[in-house]
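Notebook entry, structure prediction.
Reason for the run: the old model in the group folder had no record of what sequence produced it. Starting over properly, with the input documented here first.
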Amino acid sequence: MTVGREAELAQLRRAVRAWNENGGAVAVLVVGPPGCGKTHLRAELARILESEATSDTLILSARAEPLQRGLAFAHFRELLRSRAALGHEREGWPSLDASASLAERRGAVEKLAAESGASPGFMGELLAVPMDHGEGRSDGDGELEAAENDPRLMADRLRLTLVDWLSALAEARPLVILADDLQWADGASLDLLEELAVQLTDAPMLALLSARPELEERRPHLLTGVLAARIEPRPLLPSEVQELASALAGRPISASLARRLAEHTGGNPLFVEHTVRALGAGEESEEALPLPVTVEAAVQSRLDHLPSAEKELLKRAAIFERAFSMDELDPLGLFEPRPLLEALVRRELLTARGRPRGIRRYQFRSVLVRDVAREMLGPALREELHARLAAHLASTRDADAEEVATHFERAQNPREAAAWYRRAVKAAIRRGDPAAVLASSERALALGRDDGARGELHLARSEAFEALGKLDAQSAELEAAERHTETKLARVRVAIDRAVSSWRVGKPEEAQALAREGVETARRSEDRELLALALGRFAMIRTYAGALDEAETALAEAEPLARAASPLLAAHAASWRAQLANARGDHGERRRAYRDAVRLYEDIGDVRRAAGAELNLADAANRVGAYAEAEQALRATVEKCARVGNALWHGYAQLNLGYASLRLGKHEEAQAALDEAAVLAERTGEARLTIFARLYGARALLAADPDRAAEVATLAAREATEGQLPSVRVLALAIAGEAHLTAGRVEEALASSEEALALRDELGAVEEDEAEVFLVRARALEAAGRSVEGEDVRARGRARIRELAERMADEALRVRFLEDVPANREL
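New structure, fully documented this time:
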């Protein structure tokens, strides 16, 4: 019964009208404390849709649970299950229920995958249904096999599977999503929800989201772009409490008792409901009736008045923190419970989904009722029930390791809990779920005493933090992993990962020492695949340090090993080669190698790394003066990097887009892209990206504010020195010199340009804009009246640019490099 919600219902009806009339995406967020009426508003929306939505409207629902908060995309997995349940009930689909046969569940997965043309293998991964990879393996299955060996790739593919599935549903028919208790939703689901709101702005999708106020503390701007209404149900007035209480009691309630109820419950409808049901008919006068002190007390009083069999079932079923089937109650000592379950559904204490005579799943209507019912169990019985359920779940096929671990932990069995949490870590790694890796490994470390497992757990945590862009936390976990690592191969992995992590957080000396150690240890291990990886990472660190000959030697050894080891390492080797070519200024080789990398990554379905290689390939157009081509390609790459959720590559894509826009004279667009790059640099902790964002920002300021440009470029030069990025320091000093010249400070320009050119000569090359280093020095000399020296520098610059051009086999590319890059043309 809905009382006192006329204003809220009016907002809902208006949102539905906007959805029907405008045709685009519309979201409604209902925020309030437990019991304020969020569930009733959802039920009212369902009734409104029955009368106003078209017959082909698809309504999907999901409810977040605290236990699943660490499982990536848990909310969207529930939407998949909701769709499968509808398909089973209305369209004759095979059942996806856990009690169905594996063949039936596979059939349901195939139906879901067919709706968007997705790989059944990845759809099965999302739903924990292993698909058959026997004869007749498809290309999609090959991509799944590659993802099974790369957690980050698996995470990308699962995310894109969900994006494509929901996009296909929204394009095919009107779509309604009912999402409850979002305060418990996992971070990946909330991220994806926001992304879909942007991608599906024009799709006929209506989303009703409900949450407690703490959601807005986590995500204060959730769905602001498509939010049609934010509804905050107000407390009921005394007259409305009287109307509701009278209906619930089945008799008139006096105004005086209604006022007492309103004061006592704060006008919270759920508190009113449980208080009235707890009071019952009562023989005392209404004024003398004792009111429960809290809503929990009201709920307990109501449960105490249930028939004993119903109360006992409710208490034992409260062990579950998810929907449960009738058969799952057997290990809790509840046999043939269907009549009791249906009675509790009629009392609106449980909800049920599925055919009354078929497979039905039950769930507590309110988390509050579940929590109170569970507390009514004595501690000893509660632990015993957790132990029984843990043992039962552990014996089932496809057991959820984290759920089993949680029940063992609550049963005060830390040994078994730690073992199952370690299994949960492995499962989370396989599906590419860093948040779940962190949650389960934290519990495994807290409960377990197996020192041999601690190193692997810390290494898993380091990889999870890297995936989340939390580089400082990654470094700490790698140090812990090193302390607890025992095997030679594990020590190599730790050294390699620590080297890359140290470089990224601006510890170059430590990084280079660790990289050398990784190579030496890998050689002793005689593991050729590990040696290829160690050599490749070492080559990249030496590349960024400006030691290009040493990097070439390491890479020449790594490449054949990588190609022989695996398709993934072969793709890595192509990317390493491109980065070294870029540092040498060989733009033709850079483009060729990045094309190879894109192709190889795409062949194994690695969308994340393919997007990164495409980013660098697009930026290669910048280096030959094809700025319009680069801008167009980089805009597409920005979208791809954002789509796969790679914040680091997204940052570099924005950075290079800003560079192209600058060269095209689009200063406002350039500044917007550079600002976004700086934000992403801060989020990921990538020191090199931070410095380059500052460097390009200084370039943008040259004409309008040369003093500020000089200040920013000088800061970038200092940061490059601290980060041991000598090539980047050369570029920063050159820009500082240009800024000093523009401001009329010739002596400062001479000093900066002299240091830039001297460092460039020491290195032998810089990764971009090398002509400008010569040009700025020549201009500074000429401004100081030293024209002969200036011409000598110009001549050296011309010779260097021609040398670089001659390395390009493509004639058209060579011409563009000489004529379309402004500094090259001037030289």
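Summary: The chain is about 70% helix and 5% strand.
The old model has been moved to the deprecated folder.
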